[in-house]
Structure formats: structure tokens, C-alpha cells
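Need the bound structure for zinc ion, inputs here:
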Amino acid sequence: MAEHFEQIRATLAQQGTDIEQVIAHIQTFSIETPSWGYGNSGTRFKVFPWPGAARDLREKLADAAQVQRVTGCCPTVALHIPWDQVDDWQEIKAYAEHLGLRLGAVNPNLFQDHAYRFGSLCHFDKGVRSQAIAHVLSCIEIAQSIDSNVISLWLADGTNYPGQDDLRHRRHRLLDSLQTIYAALPDRMRLLIEYKFFEPAFYSTDLPDWGTSLLMAQKLGPNAEVLVDTGHHPQGTNIPQIVAQLLDEDRLGGFHFNDRKYADDDLIAGSLNPFELFCIFHEIVGAQHESNANAGRIAYMIDQSHNIEPKIEAMIQSILHIQTAYAKALLVDRVALQQAQESGDVLGAYRVLQAAYETDVRPLLTEVRVRQGLDPDPIAAFRSSGYAEQVARERTLGESVGGYPGA
Ligand code: AOS
Ligand code: ZN
Ligand code: ZN
Ligand code: ZN
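Answer from helper R.:
Posting the output first, comments after.
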């Protein structure tokens, strides 16, 4: 391993890069995990309860603290309201801090109330729109009270049949609702607007793509940005290019990482298409190199449902894949790449990327972890802690409070 680390150091030195810079980048990279990833979830066919799965926010935070303990890069947890609703936010904030965590993005729920059958912020009925807006405003208040500065907005709004509603009118209502929400945002809070091309609506979705989210964000103002969920595109979509465009427009708010084979499968990030993940980070690192301001304030978050696999381990595995993709992107020889690009050397340029992608970065990540006092193998560290067995004994098998989509 040590030998391999020296090899990476030497290769980087040849490229004119100090490995300490790369290590510093990896050390300051953090990823937010979602509270809902620790509770039971399932498909519409069945929820298989996991022994010891977290049942409420305190348990979800305790689990997230385990992920932070072994990875050292997951200090914040995203919340979903009302799944994570509590009476006393100061108490929960203090509990999170006691666990070494902070509360992160607040996700309003605009899809699980009976009133939302025909939509929330885009509904034809002003009363329903007002209800949805009021919910988001209360999420802003929660965020303020827990010192979180991100609201992640995802809408299930759409129509199932042509003619069901007027598409332009829905758009007007959406903008109007978002403007009311934006006006209530405190100064340093950001509104991240997520898009998804279908599901649960099957004919039209009101925020179907990055372009629509970007247009909305641009109309709202600088604190509105686009959230890219990697599972929310038609097959074949070039996500790295979307990332490049949003970075260039200064509107890349953050990510919901997960992987998929078919649709919004919410599987372990990087489990199916690690090369795509690497290409996404390649765009980000490229922007960092050019001191793109947006690249420094991206909210990296996970959005997954672990339906049959152990939830905490699945989270750790996802973190490892994301870190690996980022580390590889940091190894790209950017000088050689630019030379190849500017001389029209198509395969030369591709090979520069490939050389970074094929590098075994485990020795590099081991070095980073050892320096942070962590076990080089976070999964093994978690397994040997006995935490999973302990919570399986202590927590009764059953329903989580809130969850997606089954619980
Ligand atoms: C839904 O498909 C979106 O990915 C949401 O971001 C997310 O899954 C939801 O808000 C969490 O349950
Ligand atoms: Zn998402
Ligand atoms: Zn999704
Ligand atoms: Zn998803």
C-alpha cells in the first residue's frame, strides 16, 4: 500500500501537482446523508423492515453519527418535514451536536397530503397552493431555528393526461408560488430547486428538467439554485454536461447522489455507473481549477432508499464510492488534457481522463483516513463496532415514523 501511495505521489509530481494539495481537497470534502435513508423504506409492493432500522429522528441521527464516525466526512444530516417533525428543535439540535453532527438541508414534503392529488405549488386551487406555500414557509422557519441554510424543494406536481390542466397556467402558478417562498428566504439561505422528468406524474411534470429549474431560479434571484438528483433524467442524458452548464451559470446548488439502472431507483451511489460519477466530478474539479465561485459552495447530498440492504452500511458504501470518484477526478493531469484538447488529439485527451479513472486511489484514501485517525476500511470498522447488532436488539422491528415511499 505504502508503495502504491508513493507511486501516486510520483505521478502527481510529474504532472506538477503536490499530493498534499490533493489530500487537502479530499479532507475538506463532505457529503450530507439523508435522515430518510436510515429508516425503513420499500417499493409499492412491500416494505421489508430491517432489524434495528431507525424509527425516529433521534435514532436516525444516532445512525448518521456512526457513518460520520467511520468516514469522517458526513457531519450533516438532511431532514424531511413532517417525517422528522419534532416539538423541540433546540433539543434535537443539541442532541445532534452532542453526537458530533449538524442539521442540514430541510426538505419540505409537498406530496403526501390528500390535498395534493392535483399538485401543490401548481395546483389550480389557490387554497391548496396556499397550504403548500405555508408548509414551505414553516420549513424555512425550522431551518432558521436550527442554523441550516438550505431548503431543498422537490415537487411531485404534474399531470397524468393531456388536457388534464393547462400547462402554461400551471407554470404561472409555480412561479407565483416560488416567488412568495423566495421572498420569505432569509439572506443567507438558499432555495435548491430539484427537477425530475417523471414520477409520480406520467404525462407532464411541472419541474421536469434542469432548464426549467434554472429558468425558475433565474427569475427568483441569486439565492435560488438548481439541485441535480442523479436519478432524475431520461436514459442517456449527459449529466456531467448539465453540471458544467450550471457551474458556468453560477447556479449549481447541489446534488442528490444515488445510482440507477432504470429510473429513480435510488440505489447506492456509484454502484452501477462509477464512470459517470467520475465524469461529474471531473467537471467540478475543472471548475475549481479555474476558481469558479460556484464550485466552492455545492451542497453534496445523498438521496437514497435502502430497501433490502443494511441501511448504515449502504450509506457508508455510497460515501466511499463518491469519495473515490472525487479523488480520481483530482488526479486528472489538466495540463496534458488541455494540450491534447487543443491539438485535436481526441484519444489522447480521453486517455488522460482514463489514466486518472483507472488509478487505484485506495492507498490515497487510506493515507487520508489514517491522518484523520480513522480506520482505512470504514465498512470493516463499522462491522466490528457491533453497533448494528446492538440496535437490532434494542430497537423493535417495526414501522419507522415517516419514510419513502412505504413507511
Ligand atoms: C424524489 O424523487 C426526490 O428525489 C426527492 O429529493 C426525494 O426523494 C424526497 O424528497 C425524499 O424523500
Ligand atoms: Zn432527490
Ligand atoms: Zn428522486
Ligand atoms: Zn432518486
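Comments: The longest strand covers residues 102-108. Residues 3 and 273 are 29 Å apart (CA to CA).
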